[in-house]
Write a structure and sequence with these properties.
- With 296 residues, the protein is α/β, with parallel strands linked by helices.
- It has two domains: 102 residues, Rossmann fold (3-Layer(aba) Sandwich), CATH 3.40.50; 135 residues, NAD(P)-binding Rossmann-like Domain (Rossmann fold, 3-Layer(aba) Sandwich), CATH 3.40.50.720.
- The strands form three sheets. Strands 1-11-8-7-5-6 form a six-stranded parallel sheet. It has a three-stranded parallel sheet with strand order 3-2-4, covered by helices on one side. A two-stranded antiparallel ribbon has the order 9-10.
- Strand 9 and strand 10 form a beta hairpin.
- Helix 1 runs parallel beside helix 10, helix 6 packs across helix 7 and helix 6 packs across helix 10.
- The longest helix is centred in the N-terminal third of the chain and has 21 residues.
- The model has no long low-confidence stretch (mean pLDDT 97).
- The chain binds guanine.
Length: 296
Amino acid sequence: MQLIDGKATAAAIKKEIAEEVARRVEMGLKRPHLAAVLVGHDGGSETYVRNKVLACEACGFTSSLIRFEDDVTEEELLDCVARLNRDQDVDGFIVQLPLPPHISEQRIIEAIDYRKDVDGFHPINVGRMAIGLPCFISATPKGILELMRRYGIETRGKKCVILGRSNIVGKPMAQLMMQKEFGDATTTVCHSHSAHLKKETLEADILISAIGQPGFVTADMVKPGAVVIDVGTTRVPDASRPKGFRLAGDVDFDNVAPLCSYITPVPGGVGPMTITMLMLNTLEASRRELYITYHD
Ligand code: GUN
């Protein structure tokens, strides 16, 4: 069994990005600029956004953090999105999800200029990804593909089973795993109403779990020799930890790992790659090659 070290891989990629940024700055080009919009004080979102800002520093990017309280109106948030769309210095930006229930996440996402949508959540990017056109690919699936590529894991012709059908992970992961240019695998998506779940997972050469239920994937569900990718990051109360919780993946790691050819740990697997792929998307946005102009 080989452990897939997402933390080390992410650090290596951030170093590559920082080197390209240094070359660009030397040529007189501006630093890539990522802006993040954070609403409220949710602990998970605070951590994600702080880590995104730190990753910007590591990559030599400019970053901006724009904060709103929970009672921000949808109009105020839409105004902020419009301002960021117009700001010539901002290459890409994200609005951290989830948003409070009185705000339509979809309305906010659709207001973002798709050419600055480095999360890859705008329907134009989602649609372009689905038909294999250049676009921003959402960070978690992109990070998983990059991990498998860097570890030399063959996906072509393999049977890939994805647990979960979220817009952020399950659906885009399935799209990419089945596409010829990416996974080129035979891909099945399972969810909370799938019948014969264990029968499906036992057929998987590559099993990707993104359901957010600690310990859901048990050893009896995994084919010997499978590649197991754990996207789960659930906060589980743990009084022995300084923060009072620990992060738990979907996979019963201790019992599943001995069966696998490769497995990602939690933490230190997919998580660090997700933020690094956001940096890569921002670098791509700053090159302005994917979508040529921001201003029609
Ligand atoms: N909330 C959880 N993951 C993400 C992400 O990748 N992007 C944004 N904007 N919000 C999130």
